User: Fold this.
Amino acid sequence: MKLFLTSALSLGIFALSGCAQAQQNGTTDLDTSQIEAIVKNYLLENPEIIRDALIELEAKQDRESLAAVSDALHKDPRDVVIGPKDAKITIVEFFDYNCGFCKQSTQWLKDVIEEHPKDVRVIFKELPILDGRSKTSRNAAKAALAASRQGKYSTMHFSLMAERSLTPERVRKIAEKAGLDMKKFEKDMQDPEIERQIDDTILLAQRIPALTGTPFFVVGDEFVSGANTDKLQRILDKALDS
Assistant:
């Protein structure tokens, strides 16, 4: 409602200013109440003006919120990254290993990495927002980050995404299958630095109003919420063709 009133007020001020100028030029005898009535009727007859203004305002606020956290999105040295630093386009993904929509978009992301090894850079953001319900999301995120210390993040990540059950026992078996040094793996999973990295990602997500669930992708100055791989592909194709 606040945004609605702000937009309506802006349009009203614009109209009033125009009419005030006309009064000064001696071209109208309308008083303020008459002008307000004209503006009100015009907006009621053309409500799409308000709708379009609100859409643009929200989009502007979303762009500004992403710009405000750009360094945290793209330059955190702790993040796992696949792809070259000079890639043409960077994709940032926030995800939870228990998120069904994250699992749906995983194959698309995997294909992009394989098809564009020089042009696409992917930054992975562990965001176990379903841990309160699943009780296993955070453990899976810790396991993936621990695996990254042995150069096995990609293997662990895609294996976890392919699993339905992510009990600690099952995660351990996945790690064994990936060929990890299990003693080091278990020690790294208990490292407070990994816990801190996950907590920092959660705090970062809270600074992005549009991020209300997973998966959440940031591609350039655009974002895609959910497993909308068609939209992601359109944004990617446009960026690669530019």
In short: The chain has two domains: 2-68, 72-241. The chain has twelve helices and five strands. The domain at 72-241 is CATH 3.40.30.10 (Glutaredoxin).
